[in-house]
Design brief:
Strand content: 25-35%
CATH superfamily of the largest domain: Nucleotide-binding domain of ferredoxin-NADP reductase (FNR) module
Strand order of the largest sheet: 4-3-6-1-2-5
Number of strands: 19
Radius of gyration: 28 Å
Order of helices and strands: HHEEEEEHEEHEHEEHEHEEEHEEEEE
Number of domains: 4
Largest sheet: 6 strands, antiparallel
Bound molecules: flavin-adenine dinucleotide
Number of helices: 8
């Protein structure tokens, strides 16, 4: 029960100096003052965040449109992050800034000459938007065979001052930092890059959404976000929860200091820590982690439309195929494909037919090839806008006899 100041004053006068009422009066006045101060602080905080969000939106609205084709970028800084991951800060070679905006979660597509061959690779933007540079963070992959990989080229050959050809940000694994609703962002290993960009964009936008960020990594020697985790904690936002998960901690790694949970970012962990399943989930990491989360979240009653993920590598599965004739026109080759096959690109490469390739998951369009005759069937939806009369060999197989312009 609460009294207005006037009521209390009237009671106090009536009681003509009654000690209890005077005490009540003083308590009520103090509590009113405290409440008002609290409300003022709340309002100030809210206004501060609202202004931050408005500022962020205005900044993005005035940015130029993305470029078509490729644009030259210079490596301004190369920063080893640990765990075989290196970050590259890229500034436009033409020095025209601000840089076009991108949606957190998108990637840049690099066109490079490596070992005398042209290569196309996608790398997620790993930070929020900055007017003067983009950042990507690249893990040095060791190929199973002896070939020289593009990520090795980045680590070993590409230095500060070098110039690279880059296609504009793309991809639809994206988050709107101005949106509403609670979020779970989870990333493991180098797969953390797109969700890191999402989190940094939310922080830049001073988001008030409920945010849970799960980062899974082997141990302290692979933990590339140590400083950032400290900075996020220092914000002291009650709506931001950071969970660092080590699968195999080193003896020197200390629970509570270096990591929060031991194990993997999996449905059991999410169910244990999250207050409910009422979130939108964004995940990037190894295939089994994403499949496990998809299955577990479905079981938990999360609608498919609320689960978003992105793979860096294709999970290949051979599917059986009726005997089909494939003619590669430029190579003057007529071949038969029968039994089981993974995709047209693998088949072409096995037969030494030169088709350029990039992401190999239907994102970047590097392998787009004219389909001169026949039809193909897609093994997964293409994320690239395929030109009429063409196909993406990395994610399709022939549907009957075909002729390809390769
Ligand atoms: C949309 C998208 C975003 C990406 N973002 C990033 C990023 O932010 N940082 C980053 O380091 N990479 C990222 N990648 C992966 C990157 O494009 C290359 O595939 C990777 O660098 C390997 O290329 P490579 O030429 O070095 O090795 P390749 O010669 O192509 O392959 C080397 C070997 O490693 C395997 N392999 C390749 N990538 C992985 C992986 N991630 N996990 C396990 N095995 C793998 C291949 O199957 C192969 O056996 C992304 C890929 C996509 C499609």
């Amino acid at each position: 029960m609460s009294f207005s100041l006037a009521e209390i004053f009237a009671y106090a006068v009536l009681a003509a100096g009654g000690g209890t009422l005077i005490l009540m009066l003083v308590q009520q006045v103090l509590s009113d003052i405290r409440l008002r101060a609290l409300h003022r602080r709340e309002i100030m905080l809210f206004e501060e965040r609202l202004n931050g969000m408005r500022e962020y939106r205005t900044q993005l609205q005035v940015l130029p449109a993305a470029w078509s084709g490729t644009r030259k970028f210079r490596v301004q800084a190369k920063k080893p992050e640990g765990g075989d991951i290196c970050s590259f800060h890229l500034v436009p070679h033409d020095e025209k800034t601000p840089l076009p905006a991108f949606k957190p979660g998108q990637y840049l597509t690099f066109h490079l000459d490596v070992g005398g061959r042209k290569h196309v690779r996608c790398y997620s933007l790993s930070d929020c938007h900055h007017a003067d540079h983009y950042r990507v963070s690249i893990k040095k992959m060791t190929p199973k065979d002896a070939h020289y990989s593009v990520s090795t080229h980045f680590h070993e050959q590409l230095n500060e001052g070098d110039v690279v050809d880059v296609a504009a940000p793309g991809g639809d694994f994206v988050l709107d930092p101005q949106g509403n609703g609670a979020l779970v962002l989870s990333g493991a290993g180098v797969g953390v890059t797109p969700v890191l960009s999402m989190l940094n964009a939310l922080v830049a936008a001073k988001s008030r959404r409920e945010i849970w960020f799960f980062y899974g990594v082997i141990n302290g020697s692979h933990h590339i976000l140590r400083d950032q985790v400290r900075e996020w904690h220092a914000l002291g936002w009650p709506n931001l929860h950071i969970v660092v998960v080590f699968s195999d901690p080193l003896p020197t790694d200390e629970a509570g200091r270096d990591y929060d949970e031991r194990g993997r970012v999996d449905p059991a962990l999410l169910k244990r820590l999250l207050p409910s399943s009422n979130f939108d989930f964004y995940t990037c990491g190894p295939g089994p982690m994403m499949q496990g989360l998809r299955d577990g979240l479905k079981e938990w009653g999360v609608a498919d439309t609320r689960v978003h993920d992105e793979a860096f590598v294709q999970v290949k599965q051979a599917v059986s195929i009726n005997a089909t004739k494939i003619s590669f026109r430029k190579s003057s080759l007529d071949l038969e494909l029968s039994g089981a096959a993974t995709n047209l690109l693998d088949f072409a490469h096995k037969e030494n037919v030169e088709i350029p390739s990039g992401c190999k998951i239907g994102h970047c369009g590097a392998c787009q090839t004219a389909l001169v005759e026949g039809n193909v069937r897609y093994l997964q939806p293409a994320k690239f806008n395929i030109e009429k009369g063409c196909c993406l060999p990395c994610i399709c197989l022939p549907d009957g006899d075909i002729v390809l312009d390769a």
